[in-house]
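Q: Could you fold this chain for me?
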Amino acid sequence: MTHAKPAPPSASCPPSIDPNVHGPAYQDRPEAGWTSLPTVTQTFGMDSVEYKADGTMPLWYGGSFTTIGTYSVENDEIHFLHDTPCDEDNSDSATYTLTYEDRRLSFELIGEDLCDGRRDTTSWSWSGPQ
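A: Sure. Below is the predicted structure, expressed as C-alpha cells.
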C-alpha cells in the first residue's frame, strides 16, 4: 500500500548533530530482542531516517534535513520520545512494535499516537542497506 507523504515540517539541526553524516549498515537483530538499535539508515524514496545507537534519529525529507527526534528501544518495542513537529503539536510520545524483515523496518502502533506526521512516516515501507 502506498501512503501519501505529508508536507515536511521545518526544523534546524542541533549543533551536535551533523545531518549529512549517515552511519554504517544495519546489523541483524539479536535473538533475545533489542535493548538499543545499532546505527542504521532506512530509506523511503528520497526520504531517510537514521536510527543512531545514541537514541537520536535525524530525518531527511526529499534529501533535505527536516527534524531530529529521540527514541528508546526495549525488546521489540520502540518508544518515540521527542521530535520538534510532534512536540509543537503537543502530541506526546508513542510506542510501536518494531519489526525488521527482508531489509524492511516496519512499525505497528501500540495504543495511540496523536502525531499525524509520526503516524504517517511509521506507515511507510522503510528499507535498509543492501
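A (continued): The two ends are 22 Å apart (CA to CA).
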